[in-house]
């Protein structure tokens, strides 16, 4: 069973799909963390000058 899993995860298409989903999840997480603020929200560094 371990040998079959090792062969499965060593497949190039499976590696590509795993990396694609990993980076897509990171991108979506960053979008959901920072993407819902409008351009005028938040503090601007030069407001007091």
Outline of this structure?
This protein has helices spanning 2-9, 12-34.
Overview features:
49 residues; mainly alpha; 2 helices; transmembrane
Describe the structure.
The protein is an all-alpha fold and 49 residues long. It contains two helices and no strands. The chain has helices at residues 2-9, 12-34. 0% of the residues are buried. The model has no long low-confidence stretch (mean pLDDT 80). This is Teichoic acid D-Ala incorporation-associated protein DltX. InterPro entries: DltX. Keywords: Membrane, Transmembrane, Transmembrane helix.
Write the layout of secondary structure elements.
Blueprint: H1 2-9, H2 12-34
Percent range for β-strand residues: under 5%
In total, the number of strands is 0
Q: Please give the largest β-sheet.
A: none
> Approximately how much helix is present in the residues?
55-70%
| General shape | rod-shaped
Terminus-to-terminus distance:
67 Å
Return the average pLDDT rounded to an integer.
80
> What order do the SSEs take from the amino end to the carboxyl end, as H and E?
HH
Rg over CA atoms? 20 Å
Structural class: mainly alpha
Question: Segments where pLDDT lies below 50 for 5+ residues?
Answer: none
* Secondary structure tally, helices: 2
């Amino acid at each position: 069973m371990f040998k079959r899993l090792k062969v499965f995860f060593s497949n190039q298409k499976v590696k590509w799909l795993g990396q694609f989903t990993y980076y897509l999840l990171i991108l979506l997480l960053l979008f959901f963390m920072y993407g819902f603020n409008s351009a005028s929200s938040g503090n601007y560094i030069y407001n007091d000058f």
